[in-house]
Amino acid sequence: MMIDRREARYPWGQDVLATVDLYNDGSLPDVPEDQLLVVRGGPGEIVQVGHHTEANIPLYMVDFGVCVLGCLEEEIVRAADGLPPELPPEPPQQPERPDDAPAAALSSAAAPADPGVAVS
Length: 120
Known about the structure:
Layout: E1 15-18, E2 22-23, E3 36-38, E4 43-52, E5 57-63, E6 68-71, E7 76-78, H1 103-110
Antiparallel strand pairs: 1-4, 1-7, 2-3, 4-5, 5-6
């Protein structure tokens, strides 16, 4: 069974913005690995469009001025469309407590004992 090739969303020459911070994944040997290269919102231009055959996804070579990086569609957006809103950070998970346990009792029991405070 042959799978249809997934077409690229963006053409060569398209002005784009990075939708996420882009870090060196090791593909730039003269730059420390994991160094921030382009911040979210950084402008660039697509200079080449390729295709990853096994994954059936388009790949974009984007010139961000400071470097040319390979990007996935999820990592860029048309500059004319602007950046999508950032997802808010997920709130910290609160430990579940039994419905009949008072919150104050759980918080004092879970907190480490302070030698200068008596807990009754």
